[in-house]
Amino acid sequence: MPSDTSSVAIACQGGGSHTAFTAGVLDRLLSDPTLEDDVEIVAFSGTSGGAVCALLSWYGREHPDHEPGELLSDYWAEMAANEPVDRLTNSAIRWGSRLERMGVPFPEVSPYQSPAALWSRREFLRLLEEHVDFEAVPGLLDGSEPALLISAIDVLTGEFRLFREDELSPEAILASAAIPYVFRAVEVDGSYYWDGLFSKNPPVKDFVTNRETPDPDEIWVIKINPERRGRVPKSADGIADRRNELAGNKSLNGEISFVRHVNDWIEAGYLPEKFTHTEIERIRFGRPDLGWRTKLERSPGFLESLYADGEAAADAFLDGR
Predict the structure, then answer these.
(1) Is residue 79 part of a domain?
(2) How far is CA 35 from CA 38, 60, 251, in A?
(3) Domain for residue 265, yes or no?
(4) Which keywords does UniProt give here (predicted)?
(5) Which residue of 92, 152, 193, 258 shows the fewest CB atoms closer than 10 Å?
(6) 89 in any annotated domain
(7) Mean of the per-residue pLDDT values of the chain
(8) What is the pLDDT of residues 187-210, one digit of tens each?
(9) Assigned domain for 254 exists
(10) Does the pLDDT of residue 175 top 90, yes or no?
């Protein structure tokens, strides 16, 4: 890597359908020809929908027959509820969620008993395998590829798990995205996992604690959940929205705080010279008006607008560098 080139790790926060924004950001960043002269992408990380975006970006860069932008745009175009049965299912999920938050009683159905949960699992895996040839991944690994960190949490032990690039499988990605009330716990190597939102959303500090690769000069966090709100929520729906945002940000803020502490220790001379300062930049999702339930929205127009927002945010970020 030339001395004037910055090493960059990109972290993708989870957020359901809102991570179509993340896909747009990554599409524009990774297709910018001038960026390649300035930075070297050394790692990706992601959780839930962010894990899917990180995977597609990593795979598109490493596979000679694909490009990240192509995979990201194709995946999210197919993720949209285009068929009548998809549109009906999407509407039912959104309105069911809204009515339940308004206090309308619904029978509790475990994902272990729900045909919809089995269908969702099958469709998630089908879509992943349609865009990523997981059997080809070992042949892409020669030690020069960026790191890939996918977060999930062990249901029984409460410990987080990072799936690395040499451990990739459809089930590993599903484990990171397995929202407990939507999916069954996902078995991988005899352990059971839920959505990585509980543990690392997304992995950040692992970029500087992983001794296999040098610390990146910069970490770019593609952030979905807003930090601040202008007023206290009072409706049941608004309270649930804010609770979700705070939970999603808690782990991320902890990860960023750790990196900042390491920077402070470096500047104070407490750490060996092999540790280097790491700047953190955020690319923020600029639609705080959207409520939590829109994270389940898959209408084509909605996803296309989020993808375009991501492209615009990436352009603004690049212009500001």
Answers:
(1) yes
(2) 5, 17, 29
(3) no
(4) Lipid metabolism
(5) 92
(6) yes
(7) 86
(8) 999 999 998 776 688 999 999 987
(9) no
(10) yes
